[in-house]
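Continuing the series of single-chain predictions for the mutant panel. This is the parent chain; the variants come on the following pages.
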Amino acid sequence: MQLKQGIAFGVWDLFHIGHLRCLKRCMEDCDYLIVGVQRDNIIEREKGHKPIFNELERMEIVGSLYMVSGEVFLYEDQDYFKAYQQYQADVLFVGEDQNNGRFTDLIRKVQESGGEVVRIPRYPGISTTEIKRKVKELC
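Parent structure:
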């Protein structure tokens, strides 16, 4: 019996309950979970700020979780489909809020290649941005 491999991508900064629930949900649909951690320079370019924890720290946090049974890798070039193929994933996990062109194209490519796409729910009120806002209010 072949193991079902899944792949998920994310920033994973200020690891919180939403991240934990996401990875637990991913684990339900695969035997082996591989996780991509977005590089610091991409976050800074796309979001206009640096992450709180650097890429190596975020890799260590994510890689230490029992749900992440596969490799944890850094991604930079935004070629998600290339990573999907490289790691021979069977399932792509995508946040339900990821509806921009980049993910639409990725989903299409995965489905055309015979792969499965699983949408992971967003947990209202739980996000790194929201945590940062609350911390600022408390200070």
